[in-house]
Design goal:
Blueprint: E1 6-8, E2 11-13, H1 31-49, H2 53-66, H3 71-83, H4 87-100, H5 105-117, H6 121-134, H7 139-151, H8 155-168, H9 173-185, H10 189-202, H11 207-219, H12 223-236, H13 241-253, H14 257-270, H15 275-287, H16 291-304, H17 309-321, H18 325-338, H19 343-355, H20 359-372, H21 377-389, H22 393-409, H23 413-427
Antiparallel strand pairs: 1-2
Helix pairs in contact: 1-2, 1-3, 2-3, 3-4, 3-5, 4-5, 5-6, 6-7, 7-8, 7-9, 8-9, 9-10, 9-11, 10-11, 11-12, 12-13, 13-14, 14-15, 15-16, 15-17, 16-17, 17-18, 17-19, 18-19, 19-20, 20-21, 21-22, 22-23
């Protein structure tokens, strides 16, 4: 299946449903050829609409053989090739259509989609620009250009395009669906929810819209509503690996680790190269008390993406759980090298180094955490304990006081009592 699929902050953006425009700009060159070529062309359109793409191509081949200038036949043969996943051959046909009819807006539009599928966003953008210039009323062209603009980092430009698409076609479900994703990524969660609701009202069968709304509900703390939407996304699209991953995470928040892991298994079965799924399954296996299995998953994630800092950190946590402190030290260090502001990795390495007897290294790590986040009470408390182990009572008391103040401000009463007890013992 040929998809134009974008993701923003975990959400789905833009699955293009290839439509058949109702007009053709090219006419066969001879009256005799017109009758035969037109017949083959119309048969090809019928086959295309029925999803018989190879049969459609065969009919368009005949139309083009009879009239090599038949731009419409080139266009829809390209659409058929794209539907079969061959975007490069599709582009060759779109080129032919444009050569014969230089102002063929639909040819530019579909070629833009093909370039986007191939990851050539700059050429896709150029084609969508041309399609819109030739046909400024094509709402779908604005929707697809918005997807490319997001990929190129221009989210404000994408929002302008999606607004324009909705102004042109207030019932364009895809425009609302994608604006939901965009608003979410820009932090406008209520606006995102409103757009997702509208997208689903217009098209209840959109798996991506339900998936997107699930993310929005989860971010708003509505876990049960999120789970319902992820369930619906999977029901509508049983091969939706991303939805299985998200549902697995949501199930784990309800304490259903077994169900969560089952969903991650399904996500990986659907996409064996799904790096994030291995990492998340590792997280759930670690929570479930299976650190060895978790290490297998983190290792697979790292093999697929050697720059995956979170996977190194996860593997370090699992190694620590089985007592492999040296391995944990190495993996925390790898995570820090990839993401120098990865505070939980600095804290993890500080704790591991403390257990390895590298007290100064541990103090340095907790100091790094405090410098980056002065509100981290645990870092002050841990560093205070390390100072105390080195006999530096004054530094220990200073860190304990800072930790106590922060615990009190953050309403962490149990931790506040613990550090107050440590301070009292230090005074004697």
């Amino acid at each position: 299946m040929n998809l134009m699929y974008r993701v923003i902050a975990g959400l789905g953006l833009g699955i293009l449903t290839t439509g058949i425009p109702t007009f053709v700009l090219s006419q066969p060159s001879s009256i005799v050829a017109q009758v035969d070529a037109e017949d083959f062309y119309e048969d090809g359109i019928e086959q295309l609409e029925e999803g018989a793409y190879e049969n459609a191509i065969a009919h368009f081949d005949q139309a083009i053989r009879l009239d090599p200038t038949y731009a419409g036949a080139y266009l829809y043969r390209g659409v058929a090739w794209a539907a079969l996943g061959d975007d490069e051959t599709a582009i060759a046909d779109y080129n032919q259509a444009i050569q014969h009819v230089p102002a063929y807006a639909d040819a530019y539009f579909y070629r833009g989609v093909a370039y986007a599928n191939l990851g050539n966003d700059q050429r896709a953008l150029a084609d969508f620009n041309q399609a819109i210039q030739l046909d400024p009323e094509n709402a779908e062209a604005y929707v697809q250009r918005a997807s490319v603009l997001v990929a190129l980092g221009d989210r404000q430009g994408a929002r302008v395009d999606l607004n324009q698409a909705i102004d042109l076609d207030s019932k364009n479900a895809a425009a609302y669906r994608d604006r939901c994703s965009l608003n979410f990524s820009l932090g406008n969660r209520q606006a995102a929810l409103k757009d997702c609701n509208q997208a689903i009202d217009l098209d209840p069968t959109s798996a991506v819209a339900h998936y997107n709304r699930g993310f929005v509900y989860a971010s708003l703390g509505s876990a049960q509503a999120a789970l319902v939407d992820f369930n619906q996304a999977i029901q509508l699209k049983p091969d939706y690996a991303e939805a299985y991953l998200s549902r697995g995470l949501m199930r784990s928040t309800f304490g259903d680790l077994e169900g969560g892991i089952a969903d991650l298994n399904q996500a990986i079965e659907l996409n064996p190269d799904y790096t994030e799924a291995y990492k998340v399954r590792g997280d759930l296996r670690l929570q479930a008390g299976s650190p060895e299995r978790a290490i297998e998953d983190y290792t697979q994630a790292i093999e697929l993406n050697p720059n995956y800092a979170e996977a190194y950190k996860g593997r370090a946590d699992a190694e620590w759980a089985i007592g492999d402190l040296a391995g944990a030290d190495l993996d925390y260090s790898a995570a820090i090298e990839l993401e120098p502001n990865y505070l939980s990795a600095w804290s993890g390495r500080g704790s591991v180094r403390a257990n390895l007897g590298n007290t100064q290294g541990a103090i340095d790590d907790f100091t790094q955490v405090i410098q980056t986040n002065p509100q981290d009470a645990d870092a002050y408390y841990n560093r205070g304990q390390l100072h105390l182990s080195e006999g530096d009572r004054a530094s220990a008391m200073q860190d304990f006081r800072a930790a106590a103040d922060l615990y009190l401000q953050q309403n962490q009463t149990d931790d506040y009592r613990s550090v107050m007890q440590a301070m009292q013992e230090l005074q004697y």
